[in-house]
Amino acid sequence: MFTGIIEAIGEITAVEPRGGDIRLRVKTNDLDLADVALGDSIATNGVCLTVVELPGDGYWADVSVETIDNTTVASWKVGQKVNLEKALTPQTRLGGHIVSGHVDGVGEVISRQRDARSERFRLRAPKALAKYIAHKGSITIDGTSLTVNAVSGDEFELNIVPHTLEKTVMGTYISGSRINLEVDVIARYLERLLQGDYAADASADSSLSMAFLQEHGFGGRK
Questions:
Q1: pLDDT tens-digit map of 131-150
Q2: Cα–Cα dist 208/188, whole Å
Q3: Prediction pTM value
Q4: Domain count across the chain
């Protein structure tokens, strides 16, 4: 688990195809690896990766086909900058929100503009994830815990302060940039719980709808 508070910006220094999947080498720069051991997890642009080698100035990690298919990893090249965060410990300050490192889908930056000293980003999420994104709710963008400022359909806005722009890869975003999205895990579990006994029915629709909620007593009736 992670908090979404980025600890350092790393760099991809090797991308090696391995039998259908990928092995990556990440240079960690300012990230302290003194307490990192083989098998530990490091969130890399929001993707939870397992450390398989520690060459001294970074780490190697294997990336499965599942991860390649559902994140931006397939487009990563040597020289690309990535957000880094080590797994949290019981002593870690939970400054962001609970982040699993399991990316839900890939979104896109639509626009970016100045807003006083901050910058306002407009982004688009996959339609299947839009229902989990709420005004003033939490969302993880490339591993960074952020607050949603506005929502309209499958598009949402973020106001990013100068510190975040400097200490994460968000400063490099342009229109068209593809980003890893992880929605708030509480919303995921809440949806599953609201399905009740129907959650165990493999033939049932796994998503919630207003019709489902009304049928089971959650919707307002006039």
A1: 999 999 999 999 999 999 99
A2: 11
A3: 0.86
A4: 3
